[in-house]
Design goal:
alpha/beta; Glutamine Phosphoribosylpyrophosphate, subunit 1, domain 1; Rossmann fold; 3 domains; 8-stranded antiparallel sheet; 7-stranded antiparallel sheet; binds fructose -6-phosphate
């Protein structure tokens, strides 16, 4: 994972790099570091811990320069420590380098460099890269980087500076994110636009293995064989306000409360035609209609959305769908032909496992449809067709508004596909459209009434049936990642085949029990929990009193069609996990060991 940022221009680089790192902390936060060039001298500072540690250390030492690199780390090779933090410097002290990704053949390259007389101070794969670039650096930094990466196997984004070329940053990427910010007389490079959006919204997206050379005079981009490229400068419509906390205590809470707007954005122009964005959905319909097989692949929360997508697409559009963990997909030799459609869901658009699944699908001739949030991300660009969820930046490590927006887009897709292949008639499609349009207002109502339940226990069980089973999985995941409380999501009826043994008076059981065709059955499952002393937190439809006699806490959620219920049910579960984590005094936006964007396989 890790976040990288670089600046070259005519301002003091230190505060720019520090604010960039703070915005990239969601990508990793076990250590951070900075390299500056000042009057031809290279200065490197690193600290274990969060970016604030680095900030305090820099305030004391007063390091400055007009060019520099910054890095916030999520350890892969080598423990989180000051020594292993980036930037790494070569033996001769001629270059400093930051890296996000993994050098898979680092051992082999290390052996080669040891044979050339180099020595190593760390076990990291990044130090190997630094020595390798140093080895090839004679007087042309871009050439040295290009030679070095030609030997590297793995995924990476890399930026390098050298005091001998004191205003130049050279950067490249392969299957890890890197974007260039184009300012006036100043240029940025970063893992994510959030790092420099304060200064510019003009960006250039580098493609795999392309090389960028940034100086205060401009940016040049090259193909891997060093031919000059003319890349388009794009304008992005995120602004600073969108990535600040806006009065909320945490990004996560802000993002939970942004859901009505995010859902409106996700559906904008996608029900009543006329808007360009509908084409994103229209464009994929012929592929799905004629597909020999449809897979949906994703990781984590996006995988939960995929499970809901399976139900929705099958129920509404009558198209059979298989859901796969992206990390498992390619290891089971999936059956793929030219008429297969692989739908890849990802908030960040950078998840390495999802990208690897896409690559396999494309190699075998499938059509890939990306459902992504981040415009211009690797998954968006690797897909043949893209549907953006338009949720806006999601900074909190735990995914919230992206999840509900993904479900919304899947519902819109199912409706459009149902109409296209005549599984739905105009009246049914009209009714579904009405239900979809009512959702943002219902979400507002859920947000206004969802109590602040702060049940703190050692273990939690989440039960749901049908479409709400993935919601149970998502509720359990939110609790685990934020509160470090063990939680399991289970299909309610499966409980009696094992997990029922866990139930006692100390076990809160969250039951997702809307008044749908599974209601009577789930009521019996709740009864089974109650008889064994478990505490019941029930999510049910408004106006339902039957569950009152069983539940210890009731959260009412407005009634909607089954396909859309997961959107409404997810919100109290997000809030439950949030409030428990806050009550435990934990870091909600950056839970331990996690990173927002998982760019390693
Ligand atoms: C959980 C969470 C992760 C991500 C997963 C996939 O709250 O955020 O489980 O859902 O890492 O990330 P994307 O959607 O960016 O591919």
């Amino acid at each position: 994972m890790c976040g990288i940022v670089g600046y070259t221009g005519n301002r003091d680089a230190t505060p720019i790099l520090l604010s960039g790192l703070a915005r990239l902390e969601y990508r990793g936060y076990d250590s951070s570091g900075i390299a500056l060039i000042d009057k031809g001298q290279l200065m490197v500072r690193k600290r274990q811990g969060k970016v604030d540690e680095l900030r305090s250390s820099l305030e004391k030492s007063g390091a400055n320069g007009f060019i520099g690199l910054g890095h916030t780390r999520w350890a892969t090779h080598g423990a989180p420590s000051e020594l292993n933090a980036h930037p790494h410097v070569d033996n001769a002290g001629r270059i400093a380098l930051i890296h996000n990704g993994i050098v898979e053949n680092h051992y082999e390259i290390r052996e080669f460099l040891l044979g050339q007389g180099y020595h190593f101070n760390t076990d990291t794969d990044t130090e190997v890269l630094a020595q390798l670039v140093g080895h090839y650096f004679h007087d042309h930094l871009a050439e040295a980087l290009q030679k070095a990466v030609s030997l590297v196997e793995g995924a990476y984004s890399i930026a390098v500076v050298a005091p001998e070329d004191p205003s130049t940053i050279v950067a490249t990427r392969d299957r890890a994110p890197l974007v260039i910010g184009v300012g006036q007389g100043e240029y940025f490079v970063a893992s994510d636009v959030a790092a420099f959006i304060e200064y510019t919204n003009k960006v250039i997206h580098l493609d795999d293995r392309e090389i960028a050379v940034l100086t205060p005079e401009g940016v040049q981009t090259f193909t891997p064989d060093q031919r000059l490229l003319h890349k388009k400068i794009q304008t992005i419509d995120w602004d600073l306000e969108k990535i600040e906390k806006g009065g909320f205590d945490h990004f996560m809470l802000k993002e939970i409360y942004e859901q009505p707007q995010a859902l409106e954005n996700a559906m904008l122009g996608r029900i009543n035609s006329e808007c360009d964005k509908i084409n994103e959905i229209d464009g994929v319909l012929p592929y799905l209609k004629n597909a020999s097989r449809v897979y949906i692949t994703a990781c984590g929360t996006s995988w939960h959305a995929a499970l809901i997508g399976e139900y929705i697409l099958e129920q509404i559009a009558r198209v059979p769908v298989e859901v796969e963990y992206a990390s498992e997909f390619r290891y089971r030799d999936p059956i793929i032909d030219k008429k297969t459609v692989v739908v890849a869901i990802s908030q960040s658009g950078e998840t390495a496992d999802t990208l690897a699944a896409i690559r396999l699908a494309k190699e075998r001739g499938a059509t890939v449809v990306g459902i992504v949030n981040v415009v211009g991300s690797s998954i968006a660009r690797a897909s043949d067709q893209v549907i953006h969820i338009n949720a806006g930046p999601e900074i909190g490590v735990a995914s919230t508004k992206a999840f509900t927006s993904q479900v919304m887009v899947l519902a819109l897709l199912a409706r459009a596909l149902g109409l296209h292949n005549r599984a739905l008639d105009a009246r049914q499609a009209g009714n579904l459209a009405q239900a979809i349009e009512a959702i943002p207002e219902m979400v507002r109502a859920v947000l206004a009434t969802a109590g602040q339940i702060k049940e703190i226990a050692r273990d939690f069980l989440y039960l749901g049936r049908g479409l709400n089973f993935p919601v149970a999985l998502e509720g359990a995941l939110k609790l685990k990642e934020l509160s470090y409380i063990h939680a399991e999501g289970y299909p309610a009826a499966e409980m009696k085949h094992g997990p029922i043994a866990l139930i006692d008076k100390d076990m809160p059981v969250v039951c997702i029990a809307p008044r749908d065709n599974t209601y009577d059955k789930i009521l019996s499952n709740i009864q089974e929990v109650k008889s064994r002393g478990g505490q019941i937190i029930a999510l049910t439809s408004e106006g339902d009193n039957e569950i009152n006699r069983l539940a210890d806490h009731i959260i009412h959620v407005p009634e909607t069609v089954p396909a859309l219920y997961p959107i409404l049910a997810a919100i109290p579960l997000q809030l439950l996990a949030y409030h428990i984590a806050v009550a435990k005094g934990l870091d909600v936006d950056q839970p331990r060991n996690l990173a927002k964007c998982v760019t390693v396989e």
